[in-house]
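Limitations
The structure tokens in this dataset are predictions for the assembled complex, not deposited experimental models. Users should treat interface geometry with appropriate caution, especially where small molecules or nucleic acid strands are included. An illustrative entry is reproduced here so readers can see what is and is not provided.
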Amino acid sequence: MAKRIAVLAAALMLIVSACGGTSTGGTAAGCTVGVSWNNYQEERWAKWDEPAIKAAIAAGGGKYVSNDAKSSAETQASNVDNLISQGAKVVIVLAQDGTAIKPSVAKAIQNGAAVISYDRLIEDPKALYITFDNVLVGKLEAQAVFKAKATGNYVVIKGNKADANADFLRGGMDQVIGDAVKSGAIKIVGETYTDNWDPSKAQTEMEQFLTANQNKVDAVLSENDGMAGGVVAALTAQGLAGKVPVSGQDGDKAALNRVALGTQTVDVWKDARALGKAAGDAAMQLCKNSDVSKVTGTAPFKTPGGNTVSSILLQPDPITKDNLKDVLSAGWITKADLCQGVKAGTVSDCN
Amino acid sequence: MSGPTVPTEAATQGRTAGSIGSLLDELGAALAPVRRTLSYLEIDTRLLGMVVALAIIWTGFDIISNGIFLSPRNLWNLSVQSASIAIMASGMVLIIVSRGIDLSVGSMLGFLGYTMAMIQAVWLPQALGLGFEQPYTWIVTILLGIALGTIIGGLQGFVVAYAGVPSFIVTLGGLLVWRGLIFRYAQGQTIAPLDQNFQMLGGGTVGTRVGALGEWASWILGAVICVGIVVTLITSRRRRRRYGFPVRPLWAEALLGLVGSGAVLGVVWVANSYPLPVNVANQYAQEHGIAVPPGGLFIPTGLAFPVVVMLLVTLVITFIASRRRFGRYVYAIGGNPDAAALAGINVRRTVMLTFALMGALAAISAAVQTARLNAAVTNLGVQNELDVISAAVIGGTSFAGGIGTIPGAILGAVVMQSLRSGMVLLLVDSPTQDIVVGVVLVAAVGLDTVFRRRSR
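Predicted assembly:
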């Protein structure tokens, strides 16, 4: 059944492109870009990423097709093949499993299509890797906290031990505080991984670190917003919320509200729409020339697997009390959500 | 070469096994008077064993942490951290006793916590336009949550009892379904902040309001429980005498009453020895125009609300399990389901009710956890089923059915949480924590099985 639909779709594509009088090579007009989502049910992809990709492709005169693997690596492998048979010249893959998808990606590239690994790395040297720079996220988190408190006792709440991102983020933090730790200006009095990035566990960890140090904790580096919520709850119980700088990332509404309230210092925000736009723009360039290293703004990236891939690493935006207008003007959060409970006159962007 | 060594090894092994056995026998003989005393007191020796184990863990952590572990502050934290698992563990005991299992408690907790957060932060104030921070918000939220918990727990119980699908499978399905539903309608978002009255349930702090009873209310509650213990002892003695059952010697009754009341008052004393944190106390002084003395203000915190909730829940469930017909049916079904059915017990209805009760308790735990975090997150309660089942099993509940006590499960939850938070205190990393907890789980149940086999 699925195969028949695919054949039908391919036939339809042929007719459409024939009617449109598409010329192959050199131009992007009428070029088909396929997107393989790993799990379209997650809100983010439908709400933020897809519209941005679609808009960028439409602006370049291309056509957008997509399918959803429903969190299955096997389904995604056949989905990529389907996109090729639908006439896609560029395939954007949000990988369910960056290793399992490799054979399909290699096959697509052999068939003359260009592949973009979107947000998650696929270890294929010929695929273009577009993502936010996770090491930089960690660095920006640490910078904001370090700016607020450059010496004293630090606590580091890391994410899931099985998630490579937890270590990327920690590496970025070390670029900022590493020297101060060596010189003794900063003492790390507690550092732990947190199973499943679980905010309740982070809260318990923070309570124990506060108890062990008689509340002498001067700053907390939390790797994401959820855990920062647990940390702030533990600090609130000791009357320390707002007095101890805390970091986070993700742009959670609750966390941005904490930034406005002053209980969280920084929320490193990764605008999914910027990522979508970058991928759409890159796809339109790849329609003209399928050599990924020729896309503007690429740089070589050494992967953990030892490959060198072309990559576009986007800059995340650290949101502090001073630039809350960035998330407001971008329409990421409403003023009511951002400023709930904020005392009038304390934050300029809430007035 | 191998010829002569083999018999030697065998002989050595035989001797070792024999000497361990005789050692245990000697130990048993030496402890005989103790055992006799305990049989007068009618105390479960296993429960006593757990108390001893807990004492060893606590003392060990206290020595290594230079006295931080047994500080009032850490014990207060520990009591709050254990409460949510302990609440669910008391329901899990009844399910395991009647030969079932509920793997869905973590997901149910997440789903119910999320729903309760939506009720108080979105539906009541925004969708119905009633506004934030209404005086009735918290109670409406909790009642709806408990009702929903009872329904979804009962639904699983219905499938288990009336459709005859094994509870392992039904609740494994539940584990996936309830978690899936959260993602479905939560879309990965965190719901925060929550209602301020509701937050009190988690033992948290809002401004200078702390989610605890305070000094005098704690003492009063402690006194009420002490009176309850004495009254229970007296009435049960009278009842036994009326039916001609043997009664404990009077000294044993007195000792039980003293130890029980002493333990309760001790807990209250520890909770009252934990003062409000300096910053909170200073703000409190400022708001109430109290001058802060040079040594700082000492305002006792008292029993935290999650602990009060846990105490109430365990009292009610213990009462149901030991004094009500439903409780006796549960144990009878666990002992022998066929005999129970032949004796005229409505097995299906009873089994369904245990699951419904579990759902209600998951809702109460969900309220405590979300209130404590002051947020509902999509991964709330992930893997809590493992903690809850471990607590019940460490507390002496047997998968063979028919055996298990609620106080045991509460102790089990405290043992688990003591290990976890003690290790965080000592900066043990999380993979090592998992290894230790896993080993302790198997060792506790293993030792228990060995001793039970010997005592037969």
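Some entries come with short summary sentences. For this one: Residues 44-212+304-455 of chain B form a domain with the ABC transporter involved in vitamin B12 uptake, BtuC fold (CATH 1.10.3470).
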